[in-house]
Prior knowledge:
Layout: E1 8-11, H1 16-28, E2 33-36, H2 41-51, E3 58-61, E4 64-67, H3 71-78, H4 82-88
Parallel strand pairs: 1-2
Antiparallel strand pairs: 1-3, 3-4
Amino acid sequence: MSRTNKPILYVKTDCPWCREALSFFNTQGVDLDIRDISAHAKDMDAMVSISGQTNAPTFEYGDFVVADFSVDEFLAELNEFPEVRHNLGISDSEN
């Protein structure tokens, strides 16, 4: 199995924050590896391993991890990492 360089978004079924995050990333054109932790225990285990918690959405891109976030919280964290923002192709006029 090859490792992906795509950012991973861990989501739960029927999670309004997850739907908001998916919509945001779609609008920004970010290609995601979406993992539904409600459907797959191994994905829940992976998310807990990288984030230390069980809430979704959780975003993982290399060493950049944002757990249990709203889009505003994600953008605030992303502002601290301009290189990650650039690599993801997320515009900063989206505040």
